[in-house]
Amino acid sequence: MDEFELIRRYFDRAEQRPDIALGIGDDGAVITPGPGLQQVAVIDTLVEGVHFPEGYNPADIGYRVVAVNLSDIAAMGARPSWMTLALSLPQTDPDWLESFSEGLLAAATEFDVVLVGGDTTRAPQVVATVQVVGEIEAGRAIRRSGAMPGDTVYVTGTLGDAAAGLHGLQTGQPVRQLVDRFARPSARVSWGRSLVGVASAAIDVSDGFYGDLGKLLRASGVGAEIDLACLPLSESLAANFAVDEQRRFAMSGGDDYELCFTASAALPDPGILRVTAVGTVTGNPEIVVRLGDEVVPYTDRGYLHFG
Amino acid sequence: MDEFELIRRYFDRAEQRPDIALGIGDDGAVITPGPGLQQVAVIDTLVEGVHFPEGYNPADIGYRVVAVNLSDIAAMGARPSWMTLALSLPQTDPDWLESFSEGLLAAATEFDVVLVGGDTTRAPQVVATVQVVGEIEAGRAIRRSGAMPGDTVYVTGTLGDAAAGLHGLQTGQPVRQLVDRFARPSARVSWGRSLVGVASAAIDVSDGFYGDLGKLLRASGVGAEIDLACLPLSESLAANFAVDEQRRFAMSGGDDYELCFTASAALPDPGILRVTAVGTVTGNPEIVVRLGDEVVPYTDRGYLHFG
Fold this sequence. Notes:
2 copies of one chain form a homodimer.
Chain A: H1 3-10, E1 20-22, E2 29-31, E3 37-47, H2 58-75, E4 79-89, H3 94-111, E5 114-122, E6 127-137, E7 152-156, H4 161-171, H5 176-183, H6 189-194, E8 201-204, H7 209-220, E9 223-227, H8 235-240, H9 243-252, E10 259-263, E11 275-282, E12 287-291, E13 294-295
Parallel strand pairs in A: 4-5, 9-12
Antiparallel strand pairs in A: 1-2, 3-6, 4-6, 7-10, 7-11, 8-10, 9-11, 12-13
Helix pairs in contact in A: 2-3, 4-5
């Protein structure tokens, strides 16, 4: 199977959007940006042996490489529009490609983002890079740099599940609900959209809440006080781990892909946007971690790829 | 050095363009598309051990990964605007990064394309993926599918130099001018721009002239007759190889990044656009290769990554 047959069979789908003038198959794709809009561009790579083990379910890799990008789109408050894929593989295995493309296109369909082109190459291990471009009303993108002292720090959903799920896989004691949170992360695109004009700053939690909050705060030139007792935990996490482990996963576990954001104004209908207030932005440029009235020393900076 | 320091030190440059509202450093970049324009998106990956040998000059890798993308932009007739980079590395070597970023940003400066964001990850070998987005007047992109019987087949510049340069490197008899053509391929962006409204179809020569012409013809549902005696050859290629080798490099050698295009109308000032007519588009969907009046059997299909 050559690269054209590979693309035609697994990735070229008929569905298009009116803004996609030319999709897969030429030297480039042609996209018509809408009037009065800006675009948001993000790119993320998953490497076999680094981000997932050899032999990992290809459908989950395909879904995941789209979801991690959409999470960045969500953290900007944008709507995803189109994406490109660069896929390096050791060989062409039709079963692997069938599964990978199924997962990738499932995420694309779920979030209404069109695959418009790509590049396939050979490499010693699987490397999947997706770039997503989204749209946002001009001037409305939510940056990391807008947090102000006095703002409340919020997170969406629950923290620590994905890391606990991965831990369960690695120790041979997987908990289904937690593993699912790792395998098929939910990009918070609709929640991100509802934060436009509400959040003063936002970031997605990919490397761990503590580390990613730190990036937001540094970009804003501020600090925060966080209360460990406020961290939102799932029933599955609470039922399967001791309290210290729950908090460690919630503070430092990566791969949750929830949104961490700051806001001074009232939030939209909490029935639509599931969020928890976990602390307050301060003028002191550091993170103070409390458990009720007590300050808890905490130094983890989250996962850094070249730390 | 963590990934933030890596990005700040080697890739974050102050220069911006008015359409780049937010560049490197947030969850995504924010771009303002212009009125009445379409955008062209391309993506290409270079893998160590596949596209370049281990220990290859990092500056040339950086330049090359931009140039190969710009070549696709050129083949669409578009103007490059912005790009993202996904870079996987075994470790952070400051000398390597200094050199790679120098080459990458040299190409960016030369072609006025801004690096707006990226992703750095760890991998067993170097994998560099660049996506470039360019602009084109709405409806004017040059597709592969527009060639008509009777059109003339043209190529820009000279063919076979890059493959001959690589051959020289591999056999220990490098010829400087030919090696340079491999190491720092020229993306024909300005020539591509001058072909808008002139070329009926275009493709860039990355996998070899014969194979890439075949892709253009298949996309157009036509064929062509090509005259080997017309292929444009450089003085360096002619001086260092036998005639048969020259023609083999010119027909099937990859990495030239010239443009192959078809046109029925007169071409712009040949002083600006250096092109050579090499054949004629036919209604018979195959490539007939001639040497003067004689038909020469030829079956090479160019380099396919998963052939």
